[in-house]
Write a structure and sequence with these properties.
By secondary structure, the chain is an alpha/beta fold. It has helices at 24-29, 36-41, 47-59, 71-76, 94-103, 120-126, 147-162, 178-188, 225-240; strands spanning 8-11, 18-20, 67-69, 84-88, 113-116, 135-139, 167-174, 194-200, 213-219, 247-253. Strand 6, helix 7 and strand 7 form a beta-alpha-beta unit.
Amino acid sequence: MQKETGFTVVDTHAGAGLYDLEHDWSQQSGECVDGLDRILEADKAPNLVEAYLDAVAELNPDGLARYYPGSPWLAVSKLRKQDSFHGFELHPNEYPLLQHNLQLIRTPAKRRVHVHAEDGFKEVIRLMPPHTRRGIVIIDPSYEAKTDYKKVFDTLSEILKRFAQCCIVIWYPVVQREEVRSLQRRLEQLPVEWLHASLNVKAPQKDGFGLHGSGMFIINPPWGLTKELPQTMKWLTKTLAQDGQASFSCRHKEAKPVRRAKRDEDE
């Protein structure tokens, strides 16, 4: 957004876009107690976290954190008139909620906000490259199906073939699965600039089940993020730690400079 030129945001697995933390499913999981609640109660949050907390505060003007913004809400609420959004959601219950929730946002890009009841893995390829030639793709499936790990890598590979400059943001769960380790290895072997951050809030369970962290892999990261993210990760680890085994990693690979062939002196 530091440039006037418009950009396109594509969310392949948009979900409902907005969540009620007083809903039955939220109360049953209780995840917000060890997540959002800790962030809200902490002091001296870094700039990246403060920006997120501002978005939460806008949704909850009474000061009680009831509504939780998903990535579609965060994206659409920041769009300018020259920007656009495409959100994909196949779940029959989530899709109408996504439609309804995004219509609540007052944005100058209202006509450029599109939601689709289609497979985001497939349809995101059709949108590449966007007409703006500037774009962000968010890929965050549930990974309930093990095939999702392969689909993530195959999808981003196709995106890069069509739009090498695209910023691609991939979320994945840190669980004890070989598919996770394989995806991490394959991502870090990509010949592009990337930023890879992961956070473990507790030690893995002895039975091998359960989520104990999350990872974010960002291809062509936005300017400034590489410098700012490590300190943010350090703060998040301290704030969200559930035991003494909490940890984080933040790795960065720069893009290789393009080498041009030398011309003959006669030329």
